[in-house]
Amino acid sequence: MCRWAAWLGKPLFISEILSAPAHSLIHQSREASKCKTSINADGFGVAWYDHCAEPGLYRDVYPAWSDQNLRSIARQVRSKLFLAHVRASTGTATSRNNCHPFVQGRWSFMHNGQVGGFEAFRRHAEQLISDDMYQFRYGATDSEVLFLLACGLGLDHNPKAAMGQAVSLLEQMSRAYGAEVQMRCTAAFSDGEVLYAVRYASDALAPSLFYQWSEAWQGWSVVSEPFETVSGAWNEVPKGSFCRFEGRECTITPFVPALSNAAELRKSA
């Protein structure tokens, strides 16, 4: 399982979350406390928004703790919205194209979890990606398939419904191929203005997800595990939830992919 952190608010140096705290994301890459793998050394990535609509992106295959370029960039780049991720592979190769976040147009996406039995139906899952999105299929991960499916299903217009349909399609495919656990997922994604997050699993073991508003920093931290208490308490996102962060507002609603997908199918029938 991976670790990740996202920020939305007043421009903040990426290092304030990535490397400065006692339990920073880089520290979590060596000593995570809320996942079954404490070491997350199969690559890293950062996507950030500044003056352009499309995010900047830096990814590599090294452990995050060993890359001095990452630390240097994080100390110099200040951003109103960024996504940072350290990877623990669930089976696919360690390559730059398999490192999160993934980017398509103005959207960025990162994921912690897995689609059960993905390698058994990978080819069939990829065939679900729309033609205009398949050109952005660079890697081999289930996470990238989930992202590109959602993009093709209307992420621009209805992020919750699009992600719900994408999760549902892969969950149903996993079940059809006999996987014991079909879906475990926490994800964060953004169009550069609004930050979204999801916590969901087909069993009782949804990966962890927390959020916090900081008055000192004037913004939202959304993380797979807390890095420290900046101001106020960390709030755990309930299982089966969809989160929307914009300005000072946080909205959390139920996330039930099967029902979301069924509703959309009825609309198109």
TrEMBL record:
It comes from the Bacteria. Pfam families: GATase_4. Keywords: Glutamine amidotransferase, Transferase. This is Glutamine amidotransferase. Coiled coil: none annotated. PANTHER family: GLUTAMINE AMIDOTRANSFERASE DUG3-RELATED. SUPFAM superfamilies: N-terminal nucleophile aminohydrolases (Ntn hydrolases). The lineage of its organism: Bacteria, Pseudomonadati, Pseudomonadota, Alphaproteobacteria, Rhodobacterales. Transmembrane segments: none annotated. One of its GO terms (molecular function) is transferase activity. Residues 2-269 form the Glutamine amidotransferase type-2 domain.
